[in-house]
Amino acid sequence: MIIGVPKEIKDNEYRVAMTPGGARQLVEAGHKVRVETNAGEGSGFLDAQYQEAGAKIVPTNTDAWNAQMVVKVKEPQPSEYDFLRPDLILFTYLHLAAEERLTREMMARGPTGIAYETVELSNGHLPLLTPMSEVAGRMAIQVGAYYLEKMNGGRGKLLGGVPGVRPADVVIVGAGVVGTNAAQMALGMGAHVFIVDINLDRLRYLDEVMGGRLTTLSSNPLTIAEAVRRADLVVGAVLIKGGKAPKLVTREMIGTMTPGSVIVDVAVDQGGCVEATRPTTHSDPIIMVDGVILYCVANMPGAVPRTSTYALSNATLPYAVKLANMGAEAAVRANPALAKGVNTYKGKITYPGVAEAFDLECTPLNTLL
Questions:
Q1: Please, is 324 exposed, middle or buried when counting C-beta atoms within 10 Å of its C-beta (0-12, 13-18, 19+)?
Q2: Judging by beta carbons within 10 Å of its beta carbon (0-12, 13-18, 19+), is residue 355 exposed, middle or buried?
Q3: Is the CB of residue 235 less than 8 Å from the CB of residue 141?
């Protein structure tokens, strides 16, 4: 199979979908890998390293997209829509529930769209979303601490305080992978941490493994409103698998926060769990609402591409090898986790959360294979 690795073109996106080591593994399995020139530069990988691994360096994105399977990091941008076609396997983060235009383009142009974020194991684990959720959760606290500094528009509070001075209050809405990693970082920096979730068993688990150092709260509108009102930093970490995130932090709640407080909505790539959220970029990362700083960058891990590329490639490569060795249809028949990753096939929406987001028909994948 011919596998293409284009250079990412989203704003300040420095990750690349495949390391030279990953390219070598595919080449040794008998496949051809085409990497767009300088695709790995932002992550610290030179064209020469890919060439040494057996990949072919191609000069344009058109050449990289001229493949049977394209492996990316982020969803196709509008300038890439013309590359979508029925005989293409597209393996990347798609986040279609937050992108109606892209969803309709995928339906109209007919590629097999396999989304990293919905590949799901039998235990409910999302193995290809997890590494970037870990990165984003940890980054959320770094970003929040930065924007709490006065010269960056914040209240001028040190996250961990000092002896004799109260630390900042950090409220994390959602106790999944993002929320857990955010909590670990915030506790490590000495903050007073509250974590809110609807799953009481998950809250009990976190209370146990973190030694009771954080405050767990059962999720309901009143609890969230009170926690947000007192917060110096709010992290939105809510996930609905493959679907739009619910707006749990309302516009009214933001208005009760002290000016100079910060919200980091990690859920923005699925529509955001904060009512005032809209996607921002690394070059223009924040919006102001009632004096509160909202950081809503949809590709947060792109800021730490060396770490993120390795973490992502470690997880995605085994699935990419399966797709290359077997082809999409045989691979998804043989691997139920990979089958759940299929969001579009033959112009149909095959993932319920995406269909529900835009009131479209969902066609079960097994009826199309």
A1: buried
A2: buried
A3: yes
Active-site residues, by number, are 95, 269
Size of the chain, expressed as the number of residues it contains: 369
> Is residue 185 within 8 Å of 179, Cβ to Cβ?
no
Cβ density class 87-118: b for 16+ within 10 Å, e for less: ebbbbbbbbbbbbeebbebbbebbbbbbbbbb
CB 10 within 8 A of CB 33: no
Q: For residue 1, how many other CB atoms are within 10 A of its CB?
A: 18
User: pLDDT digit of tens for each residue in the chain (369 aa)?
Assistant: 999 999 999 999 999 999 999 999 999 999 999 999 999 999 999 999 999 999 999 999 999 999 999 999 999 999 999 999 999 999 999 999 989 999 999 999 999 999 999 999 999 999 999 999 999 999 999 999 999 999 999 999 999 999 999 999 999 999 999 999 999 999 999 999 999 999 999 999 999 999 999 999 999 999 999 999 999 999 999 998 888 899 999 999 999 999 999 999 999 989 999 999 999 999 999 999 999 999 999 999 999 999 999 999 999 999 999 999 999 999 999 999 999 999 999 999 999 999 999 999 999 999 999
Q: For the chain, what are the domain ranges?
A: 2-110+305-367, 130-303
Q: How far apart are CA 298 and CA 10, in angstroms?
A: 10
Question: How far apart, in whole angstroms, are the C-alpha atoms of residue 171 and residue 173?
Answer: 6
Which CATH superfamily does the domain covering 2-110+305-367 fall into?
Answer: NAD(P)-binding Rossmann-like Domain (3.40.50.720)
How far is it, in rounded angstroms, from Cα 202 to Cα 224? 17
Q: Are the folds of 2-110+305-367 and 130-303 the same?
A: yes
Query: 228 — phi, psi (to 5°)?
Result: -65, -40
Q: CATH classification of 130-303, choosing from 3.40.50.2300, 3.40.50.720, 3.40.30.10, 1.10.150.130?
A: 3.40.50.720
